[in-house]
Amino acid sequence: MANRERNKKILLELVKQSDNSRCADCGEPEPDWASYKLGIFVCLNCSGIHRSLSSHVKSIRLDFWEDKLVEVITVLSVTHLYFCCIRLCLCVILMCVCVFILGDGSS
């Protein structure tokens, strides 16, 4: 059986992490909603957009979160962070390759 207070505490800790502390869509600080299918945290305005797109969003403060959903969003939010880091690394590598091939423009 789900423990409402424990799950809420886990969600509030997740949203404090630097990568989750802003809305994944618009960058608004302190998002109060989460998409448990995408593993992202979003603000109230963006949660409405997700709802209209049939995305599964819940309030991290007001809604009841079952244990399984808390486990899912915990894993997905870490996975989302991992892929964001990979994407950033690939962008940096691509920029370095472009500078190497095209030169630095100082000639």
Automatic annotation (TrEMBL):
Coiled-coil residues: none
InterPro entries: Arf-GAP_dual-PH_domain, ARFGAP/RecO, ArfGAP_dom, ArfGAP_dom_sf
Membrane-spanning parts: 81-102
PROSITE patterns: ARFGAP
GO biological process, one term: heart development
Molecular functions per Gene Ontology: GTPase activator activity; phosphatidylinositol-3,4,5-trisphosphate binding; zinc ion binding
PANTHER family: ARF-GAP WITH DUAL PH DOMAIN-CONTAINING PROTEIN 1-LIKE PROTEIN (PTHR46021), ARF-GAP WITH DUAL PH DOMAIN-CONTAINING PROTEIN 2 (PTHR46021:SF6)
Protein name, UniProt field: Arf-GAP domain-containing protein
